[in-house]
Each structure stands twice: as structure tokens, then as C-alpha cells.
Amino acid sequence: MNKDITIYDIAKNLGVSPTTVSRALNDHPAVNPKTKKRIFDAADQMGYQSNVFASNLRSKRTNNIGIIVPRLNSSFQSSVLAGMEKVANEAGYNLIISQSLESYEKEKANARSMFNSRVDGLLVSLAGDTDKTKHFQPFMDKGTPILFFDRVASQSGHTGVVIDNSQAGYNATQHLIQQGCKNIIHVLGNLKINVYGERLKGYKYALMDHDIPFTQENILHSDLNEEAGEDIAHKILSMDPLPDGLFVSNDACAASCIRSLKQAGIKIPEDIAVVGFNNDMISRLIEPNLTTTHYPGYEMGEVAMKNLINHLTDNTEGVLHNTNTITLRSELIIRASSLKKKLEP
Amino acid sequence: MNKDITIYDIAKNLGVSPTTVSRALNDHPAVNPKTKKRIFDAADQMGYQSNVFASNLRSKRTNNIGIIVPRLNSSFQSSVLAGMEKVANEAGYNLIISQSLESYEKEKANARSMFNSRVDGLLVSLAGDTDKTKHFQPFMDKGTPILFFDRVASQSGHTGVVIDNSQAGYNATQHLIQQGCKNIIHVLGNLKINVYGERLKGYKYALMDHDIPFTQENILHSDLNEEAGEDIAHKILSMDPLPDGLFVSNDACAASCIRSLKQAGIKIPEDIAVVGFNNDMISRLIEPNLTTTHYPGYEMGEVAMKNLINHLTDNTEGVLHNTNTITLRSELIIRASSLKKKLEP
């Protein structure tokens, strides 16, 4: 392995003093622009690395932002990450990314590793079985800002970027009721995760507002993936009477469920009207096209990262500390899978 | 912001000497296990950060691995990243991730930022308009290992993890020919990207082997996303005669194309047999189900990361330097979208 290139090597190479090289690389006004350019070009060519570590030790900043997501291979999370990366990159920050694989223990280990890497800030979407946030206490004690997104901590004192999941659940359910559905199944994920709890609340409120009794049997818990969609379809097919509406908390699972129901001879939406969640590409490509809630992942990533970086840059510590929730717009997109009645012209 | 917790604070708190604390935290055998545990617990509780920077300065290792992908919000790339993260995390490495957004200039800036962050190694899938690898020279000069995956550099001297794209293109095309297709359209992405060039080669070889003349008009260039699929469908519908086979280099684009063709009254596969690429979830959910090439993204991520970490751990510099290409298995998965003839029992 080669030795690191130092300012002394550059100085020797160009026949200027080390002081001039150091000043030029720090953009000091006393060095004339032509010399600066020569020195920059030489530094580039020779493979000089600015001594980020030493400068980090002085500034106590690493320009690294940590991100912990439940899963990297999720259509929603990868949109969020793309939005975060764009904002961070433009502001000169690197992203250190890890996944908890829905495990509290792994999330704890990831948080510890991020803490030891001295990230300047942390963005977290919680694992499925995380029900406490003690593992983030060291960041808080140290004044390192944390922002939660999508799956946020229910404890007060944290800032979260979310959509109004309760309202979204309400809108989806009310739409099915307006299409004439009276026996609506709701498929959701782990109730420890705020988003599913909130959507369930919205489902219940909508039933209540339309005088439809709530029954626990109509709530199906699921991993919300492709395989789970098949299981859900089998459960539904064994129900007597068959439900007439289905609100699934994720498009992939809804699409897979529709496929299995159709294979069993069920007509969508005539027999069962179906609504998904997320507005993934698959919602526009399956048949019939899937009614769903547009969930702005990319924008959520942008907003979360911008808020964190503003906090770091302006040092306006009060802003994040006093902000409890940032809520983004979401929207029910009505398509053929739920339209029992024709839309009025 | 609170002051950093030092070993002196821990020592004072527990009434032991700073030397004992330092030894305990470094797992020195001279400290008894009970005391070690007490010190570890106190370090945890008090929010002690091991001084990674200082230890990095000594070891010249950061335990950070840099990854540059064209886009984070891609189904394939997010599977790759999930595989990489799993392996890296288990081996105690952090991932620093950035996206080039298909731009050479942005890839260059990302590489420079990774270099200044002193990553221990780099994994790269090249941007669409990258046609040189000079921006990675500083890593090579410094002995920092680089591995390319999926979209690899054509210059020799680099190691790449790939599938046999030429063979995969051959198999897809030959399958269409065996189904009776004689006029096959191939839709591909930017030809600067090795994977598309290789698949085109396979397409041409298959035609040649079956005495079907190649015509440039049957090659359609595309962004290979959902919108592009609609454009491709319109182009195909304006062709006279209509083609009878379609080999698209990506499932999302193929699925969107099938939707538009069906809306125009074309029967799939009777009128046009369609083959995609990647084996994304969408290939199993659209109708008819899409014939495609299984492209093992997660496994590619695992293999690339394992090779890089083995190189870092064993210091067997020769292994990577002498390996040109690591080729993973891929496989044509035949489904209804291409079956003009019934499969023989």
C-alpha cells in the first residue's frame, strides 16, 4: 500500500512552500487563483486526501448522517432513501445506512455502531418489535439530533415525519362504504408499528360514522408481502358469508391477494372491492388497477433530511425540540379495483 | 451540547483507576470479569463513545465501506444493497451509500467524497454515461480495493461481479424463436452500460444460430421505466407488419408495455410473445404472468461484499487483483406471457 500524499509532497512537486499549499487547499485569499488552481490540480493528480479525521477531531463534526430502516429492499424505503441521499449529497453530507431487519436487538446494535461512528445526526424508521427508545438515549444526552420517519416513536419528546395514517385509513374505508360495502376486511401489519395502529383507528372511525358494527374477526394480521397475500386470500375464501370489501395496508400484498381471489373465481370489484396502500408501481399494472393511498416516500425522505440538516446548520436547536410531528399530504387514488358503482360524470 | 464522556469520568464514577477502565474497555486479561462488566455497564449508561477517530488514525482503517449505485430507488439495486448490508453488518463494517443518478459527473464527485472519507473499500455499479474509470485511480494508487457489480468497467484490471448477460440474452431470444417468433423486437437501455451491450450480443447470436436476419429497426432504445413501456407499445403498434416477439431488458418496462398493448387489443402471447428481465415481483402479478430472467440481486450483493471483506481481512491482495470476473448463476423462468405453444407434458 502506498504512503499517504502530504502537503509536503505537493509542495516539493510544484516548487512552492508547504504553507502556500496548505493555504491554497483551505482557499486562503492570500494565494493567487492561478497558483491555487495548479495546487488543486496537483492534489487531484497525486491523490491527496484532505485529512478529514484530523479536521473532524477539531470540529467534532463528521459530516456523516446515520439512517436506520427496517428493510433496505422495500419499494417504499428505497424511495425514501433516494430522497434523503439527494438532499444530503447536495449539502455535503455522507449517509451511513443500516437495516434492522425488523429486530429491536439489531436496531440497538446499529444505533450503538452509529453512535461510535459519531454521526452528526440520525434518521430512524423503527423496527417491528421496537417498543422503547432507550437505545437512542446516548444521542439525546449528547445533543445529537434524531428524527423519526414513517414508523415513529410514540413517546413524546421525539420529532417524527409522517402522513396522517388515521385519516388515510378513514378515507380508504369510507370509500368502500360509499361503494356499497357492508362487510369490510382490514389487513394490517404488526400493531406495535404506529402506522398500522393509526390506520386501524381510521378504519374503526369510518365504520362507526356509518353505523356499521366493528367485529374483531374482520381484522387480519399479516406480514404484508407477496406470500402473505395468498394466505389472506385463502382465509377470505373460507369466510361465510364472503366479505364484500377489502382494505389492505400495502399494495404488494393487495395485488397478490387479488391474483389468488381471481384464480378462485371471485370477481374484483363486483364480488369484493379492494383498496391497497402506498401507490407502488404494481398498483397501476395489475388488473383491475388498484385503488390505493399515494404515500410520498421520496418527498418524505427529502423533508426529513432537510429538517435534520437545517437543524445542524443553523444550530437552531429549539426548532426540532419543539416540533413533535411533521405531517405530509397523502391522497386516496380511486381506480377500478374498488369501483362497484360507476363514478358519476 | 454535553461534553464527551472520558475514561476519567467512568473511573471517578466507579472509584477505580483510569488505567483499569482503559484496560477493561480494551478487554485486557489483567482486569477481572466482574470489574469488566461493571465498567462496560457504566460506559453504556454514561454514553461513552469509544474514540473511533483516534483509533482510526492509528490503524488507518475506518471500517467504512463505500457503495455507489446509479439509483437507490430501483427494485434490483435495493435487493443488492440489502444483501451487502447484511454481510457488512455481520462483519462489523458500516456502509456509506450514495447514488450517481446515472451521471458521470455526480459519480466522480461521489468517488471523491468517498476517497476523502477514507473508506476501506469501494463497491460500484457504474452510471449510464460513465465511459472511463479515471476517477477511481486515486483508490487504486492507494491500494484501496474496488469491486464493480452488475454494471462493470470494461477496462481490464478491474474485478466485477456479474451474471452472464450475453448468455441470458441468448436464452431469452432462443426461447422466443422456439415459440415460433420470427420477428423479434429487443428493447434495451443505454448501450454504454455493459449489461445492455451483452444482452444485445446474445440476442444477435441467437438470431444468427437460427438463420433469422438481424435488422437494426428491431432494436428500440429506452429508459426502461414504466412510462417508457407505453412509448415502446406505441412504436410497436405503428410497425407494419407487427412483430410477433418482444424481449425487454427489464420487467417494469415489459409489464407496462403489455398493459398498453392489451389496451390496444393485442393478445399476449398469441399476437406478441413477451419476455422481460430481472424476475421482479411484478413479473408474477401481471396478466399474463411474465417470462423473465431471474437476476439474483440479493445474492450479488452478498457475494460482492464477501469478496471485498475477505480481501480486507486476509490481506490476500493477490486474490482480487487476479480475479477479473465473478459470474453468478441466472435462469430463464418461463411463464404464460411467451407461451404460444403449450409446454410438452
UniProtKB/TrEMBL annotation, chains A, B:
- Gene3D superfamilies assigned: 3.40.50.2300, lambda repressor-like DNA-binding domains (1.10.260.40)
List each copy of the HTH lacI-type domain by range.
5-59
The protein's matches in SUPFAM superfamilies, at most eight in alphabetical order, are given as: lambda repressor-like DNA-binding domains, Periplasmic binding protein-like I
Q: What are the alphabetically sorted keywords of the record?
A: DNA-binding, Transcription, Transcription regulation
Q: Which GO terms describe its molecular function?
A: DNA-binding transcription factor activity; transcription cis-regulatory region binding
Name this protein carries in UniProt: Transcriptional regulator
Q: Which organism is it from?
A: Echinicola vietnamensis (strain DSM 17526 / LMG 23754 / KMM 6221)
